[in-house]
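Lab notebook, bench 4. The sequencing result for the construct came back, and we need a structural model before the next group meeting so we can plan mutations. Quick request posted to the team channel:

Model the 3D structure of this chain.
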Amino acid sequence: MSEKTVFVEKQYLGREFIPITIRLVLAMFCFAAYFFTDESEHNGNLLVLVGFAIIIISIIMGFLLHFSTRVENKSIRLAGLWTTRIVKIDLNGIIKVEKASYSRYLFNNPVYNLHTKGTIRFYAAGNDAIHLTDRDGMVYIIGSQHANEFLRAINDEMKK
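Done. Here's the predicted structure in token form:
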């Protein structure tokens, strides 16, 4: 059996628009508070340090891989951060595949292999997701920034 990869997507922790905005607003607040503190107050320097720390952490998080999604060999492989297990979803056991929105909420926390109420969720960024239902009724919700391509790749692999 050949290991031909049909689709690859990498999702990073720090590249979502809303959390970046929140972190930058916090850093700007620290710099503004430092600007309005008196020179005689020594705690004002701590505000600058915290502001720069927030910016540096934001830059580092932009390169931190949350998980990668691969469609290959009639399966979907989800590999997470350093110590997480690789999740392999066999496409032979999937009975329904559909594209839908990930959540109705504006803010969503990144999750990897979160089991709740008969669903297993994988999400880092984006608004769309692929919903997979297996023969046992378990629903896999995989968030994707390229959901149309992901859906096409899954359908192509299931037809083989």
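The two ends are 13 Å apart (CA to CA).
Will bring this to the meeting.
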